[in-house]
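Tokens as discussed.
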């Protein structure tokens, strides 16, 4: 369901921009001439295709990496013990505070299942249009961070708190919002034992930090600064993740970007300031080149 929304939006975007014959000619040229992948330079259309392909790959890889139920529950209990030793095991108390606020918990459930991917899409489109050079740095680090998580899913399958009813957690998606994510046509593609780490939080932290640092709009900076904290509240109140899941997700994102200079000299910290410069108006016009026809184009 998360993937469906950006795909529909992308189809609508392409349909709108290909109303003219000129756009359709150029679209065929894009398909023919731009099939090579680049880590540092790419057309907007191709980035969209890569993004959707990565989402599909990520979902399928989570399914491939699924662990057995007994190990996943054992690891979930280990997380509880770790949190108790750290003095932070209070997710049940947080959830109980929201349980009698039905409308609010239903709202939080919808945020959890529907906002994660669309927020990423909006973020990356904004970044590509306004900070194109920096976009590729963020995109590469984002992919690296998510690849790391796959190894966590393989080596440390972990059941989410909502499955631990005997401990005191409530599956708010099922019992309050009547959303059953354990059954359905596409449910077999999703790894139910991938609570650790939480990339819901890791991604929200990435979005919050990047927009706060780059945006010139004070209201956007303040709003997005609050976003990671709000997502943290959502994933805990709905019993989809532990505190440690979120901490691990945040640390993985931080590590991925700290490691980026190892992959390219371009991403050394001294160069990031130049990469983060706003895209010029000339470069922005190139983003809409779908409607332009090369002089030598032919049907």
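Sequence:
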């Amino acid at each position: 369901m998360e993937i469906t929304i950006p795909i529909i939006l992308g189809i609508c975007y392409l349909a709108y921009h290909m109303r003219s014959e000129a756009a359709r000619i150029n679209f065929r040229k894009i398909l023919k001439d731009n099939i090579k992948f680049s880590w540092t330079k790419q057309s907007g259309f191709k980035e969209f295709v890569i993004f959707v392909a990565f989402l599909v790959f990520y979902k399928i890889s989570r399914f491939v990496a699924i662990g057995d139920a007994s190990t996943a529950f054992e690891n979930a209990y280990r997380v509880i013990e770790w949190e108790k030793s750290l003095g932070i095991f209070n997710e049940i108390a947080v959830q109980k505070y929201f349980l009698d606020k039905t409308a609010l918990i239903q709202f939080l459930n919808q945020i959890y299942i529907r906002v994660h991917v669309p927020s990423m899409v909006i973020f990356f489109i904004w970044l590509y249009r306004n900070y194109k050079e920096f976009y590729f740095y963020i995109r590469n680090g984002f992919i690296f961070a998510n690849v790391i998580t796959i190894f966590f899913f393989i080596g440390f399958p972990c059941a989410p708190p909502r499955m631990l009813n005997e401990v005191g957690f409530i599956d708010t998606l099922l019992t309050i919002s009547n959303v059953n994510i354990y059954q359905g046509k596409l449910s077999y593609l999703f790894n139910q034992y991938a609570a650790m780490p939480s990339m819901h939080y890791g991604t929200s932290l990435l979005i919050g930090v990047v927009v706060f640092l780059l945006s010139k709009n004070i209201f956007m900076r303040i709003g997005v600064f609050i976003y990671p904290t709000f997502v943290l509240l959502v994933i805990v109140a709905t019993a989809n993740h532990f505190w440690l899941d979120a901490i691990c997700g945040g640390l993985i994102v931080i590590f991925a970007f700290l490691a980026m200079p190892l992959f390219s000299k371009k991403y050394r910290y001294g160069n990031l300031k130049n990469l983060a410069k706003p895209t010029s108006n000339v470069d922005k016009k190139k983003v809409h080149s779908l409607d332009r026809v090369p002089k030598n184009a032919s049907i």
